[in-house]
Each structure stands twice: as structure tokens, then as C-alpha cells.
Amino acid sequence: MDADGELPGRAHPNEPVYTGLSKPGSFRQLTCGRPKNSPSSNPNRIINGVLARKNSWPWIGAMMREPDFQFCGSSLISDQWVLTAGHCIDSFTDDKIIETVKIIFGVEDLTAATPANKYRVTKVIRHEKYNNPVGSTSNDIALLKLDRKVHISNDTMPACLPTKSVFEKPYVQTAPNNRRICYVAGWGHLVSGQHGDTGGKIGAGTDQLQQVALEIMSTDDCKAFLKGLYTEKTFCAGHDSGKYDSCRGDSGGPVVCDDGPEHGWSLHGIVSWGFGCGQPKAPAAHTHVALMLDWIYANIPS
């Protein structure tokens, strides 16, 4: 799923205690990663996805360009900072983003958004090594600061940042028959190769938030699938059958995993790119957030 194409950009409850921006002691405490309804409570089916339950993805944001057209996803990681994919904003200048882009939080149905759900961007931080060398799909990440703080509630809540890599025990075993299951959501296309009228009034593919469960593939499997396009800050997720996948318009959105009651739902990936959508033996590539934490912390003032 990309903002406009397929490769390299895939335009193709409990009351928790949050240890800052997942970095203990660095940021004031917030609630994170404890949705009212768990993403995993839906069946395992954005290609072949299912409607997300209300309040199961309170961190997801829909990036909108004028006149109110959703083109990418994003994730709330504090009460005022958002993560997305670098390629989602690659065609915009910083000034253009500030002038024309809004981000919707707190709704699953984009047509139900009110002015209170819409946020402007006041600051853009791009990774200094994004797409370097050109065509490498590397460092596909960006930070956006909102024009005001969100009210932390069941509707809007940050995802936790990971304390471990998605591949570290005890959370994962990467054998093909015992892979870790994580989840992705978005308002992107529901059919690979879909163009023109997708049925959504303002969504890239749909106005209703969809989600799908994906298997996290081992580093060796990912390297074999992506070949020369693999980078160390990327991981692969999908299904060998290709039946379930993210797609165009989902880029920049979250890949979250349940890291247990102590850590909550953590943002392990950012949807980056893929070879079409839902193709057999062609998993999607995602920016590996755990390996970008130093960059995130360095760019968000405490």
C-alpha cells in the first residue's frame, strides 16, 4: 500500500501506567496501549479484513489532504506527537503539510469526524537518511507534531512504543508454523490493484476502519522475500498464502502487537511498502520501530 503506488512506497482495560514515551523517566506519564476493546478480539481476517471494533484502535490517525481525502495512516505515540511513514509525506514540502494536511483521530468511520477530531500539523521531522541511497526504502519514518494535545480517553490514546524488538523472546517464535501474530489497520483499498471509485466517500478505499491479523516473519524469511530491497530496519509481515494484507492507502499506519499486561499494545511497525497487495509469497515490508527508538527520542523534546 503506498500513498500513490506499490513499490517502493506501498501507497502501496484496566487503568494502565505509562512509563513515558515507552522510555522510563523521560516523558511525563500518560496512558498508552490499553484500548477499551482489544484488536485481537476480531476474527483473523484490510485485504480480507474485518471492521475494527469501536475503541480498539484509539491510536490510529487518518491523514487527510484537501479537500478531505484520506491518503495515509499514522499513529499517536504521545498526546501531541504522531509517527507515520516517510514516503507518505515525501511529495509534500513542510509548509504544504502544515497548510493542507489534517489528521483525524478518535473515529472508526471517517464520515463521522467532527472538527474536534481533526488536527493540524505544526512541525514536521523527516529522517535525515530516508531513502538514502535513493530507491533503498530505508528509514521510512517521520514525526509530526499536532496543533494541540489530544484528550486521552477510550477514543484517543497513544500506542506504547516497544521495549523489545518484535523478534525478542518471550514474545515471538519465528518458525513458519508458529509465528507471532500482530495486527494492522487502516482505511486503504480492499482489493489489490483497485483504482477509481472504491466506495469510500473520503477514505482511500473505505470510510470504515478495517483491521487484519498478520504473521511476523523471521529475518531470514524476510531477506529471502525482499532480496536486495531488505534493510536492517525493516521486518516482513503477512501470510504465505497472500490472502490477508494491508494495501494502498494504509501506508504509514500501525502494526501493533500485544506485549502482555505489563507493556500493553505496542507499536512495532509502520506500514511501508510491498509488491502489490495480498500476493502469495510477497509479504509487506514495515519499518521496525524498535530499531528507530533512538531517533524518535532524540527528536521529541522531553
TrEMBL record:
<dbReference type="InterPro" id="IPR033116">
    <property type="entry name" value="TRYPSIN_SER"/>
</dbReference>
<dbReference type="InterPro" id="IPR018114">
    <property type="entry name" value="TRYPSIN_HIS"/>
</dbReference>
<keyword id="KW-0732">Signal</keyword>
<keyword id="KW-0964">Secreted</keyword>
<dbReference type="GO" id="GO:0006508">
    <property type="term" value="P:proteolysis"/>
</dbReference>
<feature type="domain" description="Peptidase S1">
    <location>
        <begin position="46"/>
        <end position="301"/>
    </location>
</feature>
<keyword id="KW-0865">Zymogen</keyword>
<feature type="region of interest" description="Disordered">
    <location>
        <begin position="1"/>
        <end position="24"/>
    </location>
</feature>
<dbReference type="InterPro" id="IPR009003">
    <property type="entry name" value="Peptidase_S1_PA"/>
</dbReference>
<keyword id="KW-0645">Protease</keyword>
<keyword id="KW-0720">Serine protease</keyword>
<dbReference type="GO" id="GO:0005576">
    <property type="term" value="C:extracellular region"/>
</dbReference>
<protein>
    <recommendedName>
        <fullName>Peptidase S1 domain-containing protein</fullName>
    </recommendedName>
</protein>
<dbReference type="InterPro" id="IPR001254">
    <property type="entry name" value="Trypsin_dom"/>
</dbReference>
<dbReference type="Pfam" id="PF00089">
    <property type="entry name" value="Trypsin"/>
</dbReference>
<keyword id="KW-1015">Disulfide bond</keyword>
<dbReference type="InterPro" id="IPR001314">
    <property type="entry name" value="Peptidase_S1A"/>
</dbReference>
<keyword id="KW-0378">Hydrolase</keyword>
<dbReference type="GO" id="GO:0004252">
    <property type="term" value="F:serine-type endopeptidase activity"/>
</dbReference>
<dbReference type="InterPro" id="IPR043504">
    <property type="entry name" value="Peptidase_S1_PA_chymotrypsin"/>
</dbReference>
